[in-house]
Amino acid sequence: MRAFIGLDLTRKLPKRDVDIRDTKLTGFTVRCRASGSHSYRVELGRGRWLTVGPVSTLRVAEAREAARAALADSALGNDPLVSKRKAIAWRQFLNEKYEPWVTEHRKSGAATVARLRASFAEFNGTSLSDLSAFAIERWRTKRIKAGLKQVTVNRDLAALRSALTTARSWGLLSSHPMASVKMAKVDAIGHVRFLSEDEAARLQGALDARDELLKAKRASANEWRRARGYPEWPDHGVYPDHLTPLVTLARHTGCRRGELFALRWRDVDLAGATITVKGDTAKSGQTRVIPLNSDAVGVLRAWRPTEAKGAALVFANAEGGALTDVKTAFLRVLKAARIEGFRFHDLRHDFASRLVQGGVDLNTVRELLGHADLKMTLRYAHLAPEHKAAAVAVLVR
If we measure between CA atoms, which residue out of 256, 302, 249, 257 comes closest to residue 274? Predict the structure, then answer.
């Protein structure tokens, strides 16, 4: 069957096994299948076919240009079929090449791979060389229609761009398929969630109530064991577990969750009232020293075990290893405090917001948060509107 392969044709391809040869570009063909899986192909010689890509993800103009380029390469003595066989699929690249490298060289490597694997599964069988701007834009459209926020899609695309940039630097791509793909414009400030005074009081009350309940349970258990001659468990002390000290330190230092999970007692200077976030645990990769106020010092003094070694983690799990999450316990506290729409990371926003509202300049807030520049810190500027009010006040005569 012969016809001009254009947009009109691709919109009404038959669901039966048939090949449609283009009337303008010799060798350019659409292979139709009863399953609905149609593909663009080009014949480089008798019985030598190169699959250009699926009709569902490639625009017909892109497919035609790719077919023309393959025919030109073949005419010059290059064999596109050999190049095609050397290409690797997205899934193979991710699993065999990118994952080992990024998990070794990037602190967030494992999380990045998990994001890529979950977000771009539809590209698993697609060759790296077949990824196109159109296919990626089509993916973006589907994600937005599925209800994902633009900011989430932007993060996914940023992870993909970084992976493909690495693939290109390794010689696995001749050009970057995302060169023309732009990030969607999103509100740079957005909604900064912080605690009201009433919410802060309720949060502290819920934490205190939880601590008292855990200590009461331990006392009750020891009474039962004592009555039966069993060895008693040690008293909890001021804090029965890490949650209250962890939340308190987050509110008073603005540290990220991962920075607190990696904090060791040798990084805590109670006499000098500082903690040191090491560069190898900080998101920015830069070491920073954060001063501690009296509330933070008091909590750490009460929490520190008398026999604590410098290399020991400040917030460890029951086996002494690093914590991986506190989401379940924290959500229960939030529920008890009747606080909605709040995440552990919002404790960092709460820290910054209270500083700005208290009159601390943005550059100092930036240093405390560990931002590389003011761009991220400016999201809190609207919480200190006095300088804007003073500026427009000069217009009044």
Answer: 249
